[in-house]
Amino acid sequence: MTSTDDRVLNAAMGGDRRAREDLFRRQLPVIYSAVARLVPAERVDDVVQETATRAIEHLDELRDTSRLRSWLLTIALHEARRDRAARSVAPDWRLPEPGPDIDPQDVAVARVTMSGQRRELAAATAWLDPDDRELLTLWWLETLGEMDRPAVASTLEQEAAYVAVRLQRLRERLMKARVLVRVLAGTDSCPELAAESSGWDGEPSALWRKRFLRHVSSCGRCGAAGGALIPPERLLPAFPLLVPAPAFAAVSSAAAGAPAKAAGTQVKTVVRAVRRLQSLGGNTAAAVVATVAVAAASIGVYAVRAHRPDPAPAAAVEPAAPGSPAGRAPSAAPASSAPAPARASVTPIVYAGPLEITKGGTYRGNWASTNPDVAAVTIHTSEPVIIEQCHVRGPGTLIGAWSTDRATQISMNVTVRNCTGEGLDPGLTGRARGFFFKAVWPHRVVITNNEFRHTRGIHITGDRKPGSMDELLISRNRAFDTDGRVTRGRCDPQHNPDPRTTKQGSCAGFFSATLGIIEPRHFEISWNEIVNQPGQSDYSDIISVTGVAGTPARPALITDNYLRGAYAKDPTLSNNGSMITCGDSSPGNTAEHASRYLTCRGNHCVSFSNICIAIAEGHHNLITGNRMISTGRLPDGRVINSHYTGFYIRNLYHETFFTANAATGNTTAVTYISPTGKPVPLAPVLTDCAPNACHDNTTQTPTTTTENNEHQRWQQQAHTTGITTGPTS
Q1: Which whole number is the average pLDDT over 327-342?
Q2: Between 293 and 529, where is the model more confident?
Q3: Which end of the chain is less crowded, N or C, counting CB atoms within 10 A of the terminal residue's CB?
Q4: Residue by residue, what is the 3-state secondary structure of 479-538?
Q5: Do 250 and 227 share a domain, yes or no?
């Protein structure tokens, strides 16, 4: 609270009537809006006034003035519970119908934000239990910026850690309720659901929620209705703080000595100001936000909550002047005080030439190379480097980290985030595109929320010494068309890093290749979205984990990735490697450098040749909870050449230390197409699984529909977990 707020509160606690009126007028919008989400519309005014009465009676019990809002909300929750206990009518999140003193157009402004999934979210709240609706109300106020998490915990009189757990469970229940709303509103009715709902009176209840959700979880048709749900925290801010009903506005205005009619006029003025705000763009809108907020606060109501305008796109970085650090921007560069002009259209990306980084810092900009032997960005320092909000392109490696000095090499610390990369055809015989990112012997690499296409992916080589690499995190990236193809001829080992020529003459391509990383503190490849198209890609393995070792306490994790398409250059002629190698090496590998303590969990593999996940080497590696679906046909119906299996555990290199490798709880739906055109199911190959270590794996029959629905399934899991892939800024 500000010093002014403190003075008002102290005066109110001392019995000053005007201070009390001022105090509650300031808090009224939040209290009113919270109560409106918890009790039926006709009860809101009474509950809010009862809240105010009890707060005034007990104002002297407030010990911490900074907790005023959460203290008032705690009282409001208790009053709402008391009111609900005396009545059976449930509240909802729909906007009120326009009354005689509210312009219907004003309500229409707010209704605009209720389209689509916001409307579904509003309907889904009716299926929540009262405790969850209370928590949802406070979470909503948190997303609006009216409360922070400690205030939410204080209002609920619970520990913050427990509130975090409750919020996670609420998100899950709310997502299920939204699916239920879609299913019940669907025009393509399910016969089994119709039979299940016989006798339902149309009113949401805990009993019917349980019955319906049990059906949805077991029904392929109804379960598919949950695809592409936007996370609730993105939808909640669109629900406005509500205008107090005219009767309550009249009471509040009368208490302040203002006529009720004048208060109604002020409400309309604020709403129309916000409507005007929404029609403006750029920094003009930003300048109006404060004015509207002050006007709303001055009368104690909010008609619509204005959103903060999205920031204008960052200007492209021009080539730096000679002698200056090209494209470099400090991580905390001061914002310009002069507003930037609003843009009417998207400005084309302007690329500077290649960037060489010799000092640590944060770098933002756009860099390109036209030479396949020169990276768009090269890092030559052991000082921490962050590359963010960038665009890189070129025919060779896009971002490379290396040094001729070993001490520098083994200490490199690089973060790449919120960047886009594009690999270009070098147009040279035997030459393939380069990697999005390549590093040798780094100490720490974090690559998150990027998007890249037509590259050979991410390639990181460790120095095979325990603990020499501290952290590797590759997460929440989007990659399209892993591409090791060459323009003419076959992959030339003399002119391509890590060539490993494929059967059809391409160079090795990956989403990520990690080699020789032994016992890092943190190793994780997670929540990446990888999509390859036939005829646009060629690969060796998609996620290649070779000679990587975790520990029993800190296993190396390859989790929750979505991979669609593992195709050779011509997938009708031959196949290549695996979608995920969960332990691989080469003949003659030693136990010291064996793949070990790898966990490949919760990944989704769709439409592949050869194998989804393989353990071919090492010990104590685990394949668990993955889904692998492939019909044996390309999206256009052509037959994919040579499927082997969904997953396998095989001692491919005849190692004496190949032991304790396991597979549990996986789902495979994989077939190959026989010469007669019939699909033939393929079971997992578990020749060398540890005794009693491969169990609870299920086999199903794949269809084109299940292939296509798998992306929606993964997206829903990502949304439920709060994951966003690709650049976020």
Answers
A1: 33
A2: 529
A3: C
A4: EECCECCECCCCCCCCCCCCCCCCCCCCCCCCCEEEECCECCCEEEEECCEEECCCCCCE
A5: no
